[in-house]
């Protein structure tokens, strides 16, 4: 915590999807560390409520899907608030159901928010961070799902693998361009953290012929069940800020739980084992 306060205290943090769940936890902890927090979300009411809770923070209604709006946000923050020390591309949504049952609009929603949203954040803020010539951090939210394969959540899993790859490539690009001393790019891989993501997740269209609604909804129920034992977002935020301040690249809310999924993925690829059905990976806090 001391290291995190020294590293981030006094700086400006811009957090997308800040009005709920992990984003709100990161915002609360950033505020506790002495950061000025810009709360970016599409949920105006929830963002305003959090602004009232965190004196000195700023709420902005902005959709990460809109590249122009994200560029305007960056311009406004640099003009009115100051140089950004920490950008967290956190906004993300879930989707349940067989891939062949997935409405095209729901596929696009996941890709536009989870993947393009991260790209828009990087595109809007990174050049300004580089130009400011002060140390800055970019965190992108991948997931334990970024190193796992899970049926009935395919669009989400695809998006989280994509964010992990984007973040790894971005880290190399920052180094290649000679900015590694100033800009830290880091990937956040939460395991199971209490949030609204499963409630607001897309599903399948019950009116479409042959659609398996029960499969989609039973996967949602299984995920909601995991949430019952999940980590508190404030606790998750503390862990992530501490790991970031220590310079790790992979920031894991539950190092044992997420780390075991990473090791399993590495072994599957090494041994070329085909994907295998398994019961849902259950998070048991007693084990971690
Ligand atoms: N909760 C978990 O256990 C978990 C695990 C792994 C990864 N993650 C990742 O963490 C991130 C945050 O998820 P969460 O679980 O806190 O979800 P959440 O649903 O609780 O919060 C997401 C926030 O993003 C906002 N949002 C949605 N669409 C937006 C858009 N287009 N523009 C701006 N804001 C938008 C929502 O209004 C909400 O406030 C996501 O990227 C998610 O994939 C979460």
From TrEMBL:
Keyword list, A-Z: Oxidoreductase
InterPro entries: NAD(P)-bd_dom_sf, SDR_fam
Pfam families per the UniProt record, alphabetical: adh_short
Oxidoreductase recorded as keyword: yes
Gene3D superfamilies, sorted: NAD(P)-binding Rossmann-like Domain
SUPFAM superfamilies associated with the record: NAD(P)-binding Rossmann-fold domains (SSF51735)
GO-annotated cellular components: membrane
Record GO terms (molecular function): oxidoreductase activity
Entry-linked PANTHER family: DEHYDROGENASE/REDUCTASE SDR FAMILY MEMBER 7B (PTHR44196), DEHYDROGENASE_REDUCTASE SDR FAMILY MEMBER 7B (PTHR44196:SF1)
Membership in a protein family: Belongs to the short-chain dehydrogenases/reductases (SDR) family.
Protein's UniProt name: Oxidoreductase
Organism: Mycolicibacterium duvalii
């Amino acid at each position: 915590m001391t290291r995190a306060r020294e590293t981030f205290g006094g700086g400006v943090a811009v957090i997308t999807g800040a009005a709920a769940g992990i984003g709100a936890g990161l915002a609360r902890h950033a505020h506790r560390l002495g950061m000025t927090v810009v709360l970016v979300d599409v949920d105006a009411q929830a963002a305003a409520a959090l602004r009232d809770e965190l004196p000195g923070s700023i709420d902005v209604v902005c959709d990460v899907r809109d590249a122009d709006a994200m560029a305007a946000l960056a311009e406004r923050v640099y003009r009115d608030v100051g140089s950004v020390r920490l950008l967290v591309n956190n906004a993300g949504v879930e989707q349940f159901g067989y891939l062949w049952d997935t409405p095209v609009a729901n596929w696009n929603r996941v890709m536009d928010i989870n993947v393009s949203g991260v790209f828009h954040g990087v595109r809007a803020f990174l050049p300004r961070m580089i130009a400011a010539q002060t140390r800055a951090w970019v965190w992108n939210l991948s997931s334990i799902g970024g190193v796992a394969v899970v049926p009935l959540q395919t669009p989400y899993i695809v998006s989280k693998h994509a964010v992990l790859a984007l973040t790894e490539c971005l880290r190399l690009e920052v180094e290649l361009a000679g900015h590694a001393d100033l800009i830290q790019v880091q990937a956040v891989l939460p395991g199971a953290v209490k949030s609204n993501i499963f409630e607001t997740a897309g599903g399948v269209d019950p009116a479409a012929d042959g659609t398996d609604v029960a499969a989609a909804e039973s996967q949602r129920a299984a995920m909601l069940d995991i949430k019952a034992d999940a980590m508190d977002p404030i606790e998750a935020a503390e862990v992530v800020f501490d790991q970031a301040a220590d310079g790790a690249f992979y920031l894991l809310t539950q190092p044992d739980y997420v780390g075991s999924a990473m090791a399993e993925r590495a072994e599957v690829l090494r041994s070329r084992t085909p994907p295998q059905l398994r019961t849902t990976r259950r998070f048991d806090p007693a084990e971690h």
